[in-house]
Amino acid sequence: MIYGNLKVRKLKDRLAYAIALLCVFAAAVPLISILLDVLVKGLPQFSVEFFTSELPSPGTGEPGGIGPAMIGSMYVIMIGSAIGIPIGIFSGIYVSEYGNNWFGRSVRFLTEVLSGLPSIVVGIFAFLLLVLGLGGPTAYAGGFALSIIMVPVVSRSTEESLKLVPNTIREASLALGVPRWKTTLNVVLSHGRAGIITGVILSIARIAGESAPLLLTVGWSPFVQTSISEPISTMPVLIYLYGTSPYENWINVAWGTSAFLVIFILSLSIGVRLLTRGKFAYSRL
Amino acid sequence: MHTAGCDILSDKKYKMETNELNAWFGSFQAIKNVSMKIRGNLTTAIIGPSGCGKSTLIRCLNRMHEVTPKARAKGRVLLDGEDIYSRDVDPVEIRRKVGMVFQKPNPFPTMSVFDNVAFGLRANGIRDEEFITKQVERSLRQAALWKEVEDNLDGCGAGISGGQQQRLCIARALAIEPEVVLMDEPCSALDPIATSKIEDLIFDLKEHYTVIIVTHNMQQAARVADYTAFMYLGELIEYSKTKRIFENPEEELTEKYITGRFG
Fold this sequence. Notes:
- The complex is a heterodimer of chains A (285) and B (263).
- Chain A is an all-alpha fold.
- Chain A has 13 helices and no strands.
- In chain A, helix 4 (102-115) crosses helix 6 and helix 7 packs antiparallel against helix 8.
- Chain A is globular, with a radius of gyration of 24 Å.
- In chain B, the strands form two sheets. A six-stranded mixed β-sheet of chain B has the order 6-7-8-3-9-10, with helices on both faces. Chain B has a four-stranded antiparallel β-sheet with strand order 2-1-4-5, with helices on one face.
- Chain B has one domain (6-258): Rossmann fold.
- Chain B is of the alpha/beta class and 263 residues long.
- The radius of gyration of chain B is 18 Å and the shape is globular.
- At the A-B interface, helix 7 and helix 8 of A face helix 2, helix 3 and helix 6 of B.
């Protein structure tokens, strides 16, 4: 009996399969129940007023809306993106195209460290630097904190997608007497475009739901703000404040906001998947 | 080995010349003291077994060798009598004059057929679209590809067949009007029909260009080259007229390789 007992082996195989399946359920059930819970309690809140009205007064029973918080979130996401995306893309380009030296390797190591940084630490950094330093919570302090979270995500995905560009393509351009920087800009970047755009969109999805840094930096305002140097309301902070309040209409608004955030983030991620699927995905982007 | 006669550097017949050229990858020496003179408007083939340094040699001729990490070269390479490795020479300028076609067809996959050929012109600052259109057609005709792609100029550069892709790469190299065209085993990824098309093309090219071709295939060297160099383990063993190399080689090693007794 060199081969052992076949029946025992089959049993072991079944057992391993069953355990794996069980773990899949253990992982999927909480996820799905969270999603369902949020959607079941949040979706009924959706209405035109919900997305346009002012924040409701507490305990009045009026439904109110999240207009100011949506606009506030848009501010911080746009400020974060305006700072984070260019820095992330260019540092990714540096590491991939010019970083074959100790400095490039240190930059890559630092972005890894940065991407593992707890977001509350990023928040406290922005708080000390911009909120205490410049006298109060502001939209741009929040945007700045979000950009710090964004940079490593964008930088890594840029680097990874440029590394996938075959060297023969770079050489083809260099051999035509095209300088290095033009080769990077015109050939390498256009080839890695799909991956970079994917990374950028996913990083936006990532910061859209970030709450810890915003709790420390943007403060709160129930009104629509036109200035980025004022405190503002944002969706994650709204969920925190309203969700933990004792007022029923606030709690409902928090559920609605949660559902909206989840749908927003999921559609970004799913949209990217659909867009970048297939062999010639880059021609679509 | 064939260094005699350095005093005729200015001789116009010689388009390029290497002088005691050495090249390394890290600590591995791929090219050892190669000195050879390459005549203008003729085709020179470099043959030899795998790993003998023939690709490295031609990559030194347009300073593409140094693009590889940890690669370096020492010695002199003259183009029209000017040392392309001298300190004040920009490798970008050299690569405009000495074009290159690679082993595997490598068209830019994100660009159309037209844009592939036009890329070198546009990236070198030419904005005159009329001139670019003319030049693209001329290059595609020279590369014997025009008839096959004239209705599909907007098609994807990677969407044509392998043989067409390689001719597209040749057209792309010709579009910027180089003086020398280096070809690194241009047919090794192609079938016999595509190969014979490219060989015909190489034959026509020497009217306007100096062609240096690295090949694995001895018959190919015999068919297309006026001069042939045989390399072995990084050294230039023998270099003379193709007919002479194949019919009456001086070195025993060359004869062994030609007759297939090693390599």
